[in-house]
Design a protein that fits this description.
- The structure is a single chain.
- The protein is of the alpha+beta class.
- It has 20 helices and eight strands.
- The strands form three sheets. It has a four-stranded mixed sheet with strand order 1-2-6-3. A two-stranded antiparallel ribbon has the order 4-5.
- Strand 4 and strand 5 form a beta hairpin.
- The chain starts with a helix and ends in a 5-residue tail after the last helix.
């Protein structure tokens, strides 16, 4: 055989090998958990839902089991739909499932500094260690007074401009988290910082919504698509511009304050980070990003929960009536609730847990990835494979929860985790909604306190009712499925009636807000001149003085 013939045969063999290799893309690898049928090249990619994916993924769980696999082109994803599987893989085996899948969007939008979605690395460990060293339960408890004062302003704002309730919820949670992290508050909902923050958050929710954008990490050639044909590139650039400007401005304010030796009432998180930056091994960019992403997470998740909480109370007057009865029994109408009252409010606690179950804030969580090969129930979990926990499927499993499609707080009075009688709930835990293993949210203690003080205040002080139909005079139906498309379950704004429960409640709300003004002083010292002027005029006009 001549040299030319040998070359031709070699080329033919190489071509055949390439064809076979290509045709294998999209096939489910041997040993993986079962899943929907695949097609060549795409696997299950063509089937992946682009809106509210948790619903379809839950449907597949009922067909293929609580752990199944999806083949997404050359990539693989394990979907977990039970507390037992999630606890085993992501908690008990956290050392090997602590990673995140590659995230090109994070690299473009945040230079890889968003430690919430970053892959496991020395940089991630440094950022995580810094967050955990400061956001302890003890530190979180010390900041409850400013969170409570912010809840008084929330009640006061709802008295004056109830039609802006959605923004009042956002201002309240953002201001409290700003105070904890940066030592300054947001006294009004239309500050530049709030608009910049929630503008970036809105874009991020759209960017990270599973299935909403091409799988750039699975098909790397997509990275080179021109921006005019790749909307996600434009979104990443917009996010980066908003984030970097805000993060570095806030960090610089803390640096200047620390250099001057000025302190706030309770030393804020970022002041400690500035003082300990070298000790913690943080660059300036890392420090700025750490504070910024904690601010994002704390502002958006808590306000989203409060919006869902009020949506559900408005839609379920029978639940609200029981809450009011509990408030009257425990607190009465002569004072506002205090944190010490919370342990005596089992029905409120049940409502909070049922709201979390009924509409999980991040229904699919954030995907983990395996650092090493794992075997679970004889299934292979390959190194590098994504692992997604479908919290929606877990909390809407009819085998575990009776009538899971109904909002029934009473289920949590019958059992700790609201499960059916006889169900083994050993692997359930209340922190599951904050994540798993070494990726659990470091700010969960601050979030728990914020939810506690705000739900107590809202349930004590107000009636939330549907609007009446102008023709029939009957209450309008509240749509509890009206949620924004995105990675986070955020209710769409809706019109409803907000009124104080009585004139006594209204008087106490006004008095408590006036008494809270000195608590704000330490966090208002560092506001800019425009904000201070606005505060002075507003409080003078309303007959308030600090």
């Amino acid at each position: 055989m001549g040299a030319h013939s040998v070359t031709s045969v070699a080329a033919l063999v190489a071509f055949c090998w390439l064809v076979v290799k290509t045709l294998r893309i999209g096939r489910r690898r041997a040993g993986l958990p079962p899943g929907p049928p695949t097609v060549p090249l795409l696997g299950n990619m063509h089937m992946f839902p682009t809106q509210f994916p948790q619903l379809k993924l839950a449907e597949w769980a009922r067909e293929y089991g609580d752990i199944y696999s999806l083949t997404l082109g050359p990539g693989e994803l394990i979907v977990v739909s039970s507390a037992a599987a999630a606890r085993e893989l992501l908690d008990r085996r956290s050392a090997s499932t602590v990673d995140r899948p590659p995230n090109h969007f994070n690299l473009m939008a945040s230079d890889g500094l968003n430690f919430v979605v970053s892959q496991y690395s020395d940089q991630w460990r440094t950022l995580r260690r810094a967050a955990n060293s400061v956001l302890t339960p003890q530190v979180a408890a010390r900041h409850v007074p400013i969170q409570r004062a912010e809840s008084f302003q929330l009640m006061y704002d709802l008295l004056h401009t109830p039609e802006k309730a959605w923004w009042h919820f956002r201002r309240t949670t953002n201001s409290a988290v700003m105070s904890v992290l940066y030592g300054k508050r947001a006294p009004r909902y239309d500050t530049r910082e709030i608009h910049e923050l929630f503008g970036a958050l809105y874009l991020e929710v759209k960017l990270y919504d599973p299935g909403a954008h091409p799988p750039v990490d699975l098909i790397p050639i997509l990275k080179y698509v021109p921006e005019r044909f790749a909307p996600w590139k434009r979104i990443c650039r917009q996010i980066q511009e908003k984030q970097r400007t805000l993060q570095h401005e806030l960090l610089q304010e803390c640096e200047e304050r620390v250099a001057r030796g000025q302190d706030v009432a309770e030393e804020c998180f970022m002041d400690q980070i500035v003082r300990r930056r070298e000790e913690l091994g943080l660059t300036r960019d890392m420090a700025a990003a750490l504070g910024g992403f904690l601010l994002e997470a704390g502002s958006d998740t808590t306000s989203t929960f409060l919006q869902t909480f009020i949506l559900l109370l408005t839609a379920h007057p029978e639940v609200q009536k029981k809450l009011h009865e509990e408030m009257d029994l425990v607190v009465g109408v002569q004072r506002v609730p205090t944190p010490d009252d919370f342990e005596h409010m089992p029905y409120l606690q049940a409502c909070i847990r049922e709201a979390h179950r009924y509409r999980p804030i991040v229904p699919l969580g954030l995907p983990h990835a395996a650092l090493t090969d794992e075997v679970y129930r004889e299934y292979l979990i390959p190194k590098g494979c994504g692992i997604l926990v479908n919290q929606w499927a877990i909390y809407h499993d009819p085998e575990v929860f009776e009538s899971p499609e109904l909002f029934v707080p009473e289920r949590f009075l019958k059992s700790e985790f609201g499960t059916r009688p006889g169900v083994d709930d050993t692997d359930f835990r209340h922190t599951m909604l904050f994540g798993f293993g070494r990726r659990i949210c470091p700010g969960r203690h601050v979030a728990d306190h914020a939810i506690m003080v705000n739900t107590m205040a809202l349930a004590w002080g107000f009636d939330f009712k549907p609007l009446l139909n102008e023709v029939t005079g009957t209450p309008e139906v509240v749509d509890t499925w009206a949620y924004e498309v995105g990675a986070m379950s955020t209710p769409k704004p809706f019109e409803f009636s907000i009124k104080p429960r009585s004139s006594a409640h209204e008087q106490i709300i006004r008095a408590e807000f006036a008494r809270a003004l000195p608590s704000f002083a330490a966090y208002e010292h560092f506001l800019n001149a425009e904000e201070k002027e606005w505060l002075a005029h507003t409080r003078k006009d309303e007959g308030l003085c600090a």
